[in-house]
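Hello Y.,

Per our agreement to keep a running log of every chain we model this quarter, I'm adding this entry. I've kept the format consistent with earlier entries: sequence first, then predicted structure.
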Amino acid sequence: MVTTLEGRHVRIFRNGRNQAIRIPRELELPGDEVIIRKEGACLIIEPIKTLPLRELLAQWEPLDDDFPDIGDLPAEPVDL
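Predicted structure for the entry above:
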């Protein structure tokens, strides 16, 4: 591998029917999944930002809907 001002020079190899590269340790991405897209001749690889469930729920607006009162409805029979 050769380091240049614009990035690292790495080799492309085949993994089955896919092309693949090894990402050098200093360029590792967090997480287990990424988004990859092509812009012209460039491939852009971005980590998927994950939020803990508590932070995700905190972003949501509360529901103002009134839910119907279902009272004590009898259970429906189930055939097993």
